[in-house]
Write a structure and sequence with these properties.
Blueprint (H helix, E strand, L loop, with lengths): L1 H26 L8 E10 L3 H11 L3 E2 L3 E3 L4 E7 L4 E7 L5 H8 L4 E9 L2 H10 L10 E2 L5 E5 L9 E5 L1
Parallel strand pairs: 1-5, 6-9
Antiparallel strand pairs: 1-6, 2-4, 3-4, 4-5, 7-8, 8-9
Catalytic activity: (R)-methylmalonyl-CoA = (S)-methylmalonyl-CoA
Pfam families: Glyoxalase_4
Keywords: Cobalt, Isomerase, Metal-binding
């Protein structure tokens, strides 16, 4: 009886804290000329693309795309469909591939970047530059989905390489 009454009295307190903190949080969000959208994909660098494809397709039963070469980005890509998002498997293409240098440091592969959709990539670039967030290219490049993409410097994003993709 004592435990039950303590649980019942603590529950409303948690709701009160939750609703008041969410109100103050939303009031602190500045209005932007652009908006973040959904998580498009999480990219994973892999040393053996065929083995990685086989894991997701044959072992886990996922729908896996064909391999696509993106010479401008120095990568081969494969997308794994997950329903609400995708995984992007990345493998080096050419000696100057950023994935080759990533795999030299991380021999077994690992998470490389996250990709978040934006509704206006040019407005995002302008505003992020004003906020001292470094962008790794002067102009967007066409990414694996045929849409403009940019990458934000991981040191400005708490150690995460963030890709923004035009929705």
């Amino acid at each position: 009886s004592g435990l039950l009454s303590r649980l019942q009295t603590s529950a409303p307190t948690a709701q009160t804290l939750s609703s008041s903190s969410s109100k103050s949080f939303s009031q602190n969000i500045p209005s932007c000329l652009w908006k973040l959208g959904r998580l498009n994909h999480v990219a994973i660098a892999v040393p053996d693309l065929e083995k990685a494809q086989s894991l997701y397709k044959d072992v886990l039963g996922a729908q896996v795309s064909e391999t696509v070469a993106l010479p401008e980005h120095g990568v081969y890509t494969v997308f794994v469909e997950l329903g609400n998002t995708k995984l992007e498997l990345l493998h080096p293409l050419g000696e100057k591939s950023p994935i080759a240098s990533f795999l030299q440091k991380n021999k077994t592969g690992g998470m490389h970047h996250i990709c978040i959709e934006v509704d206006d990539i040019k407005a995002a670039m302008t505003e992020l530059k004003k906020k001292k967030i470094r962008i790794l290219s002067e102009e967007p490049k066409i990414g694996a989905h045929g849409k403009p993409v940019i990458f934000l410097h991981p040191k400005d994003c708490h150690g995460v390489l963030v890709e923004l993709e035009q929705a």
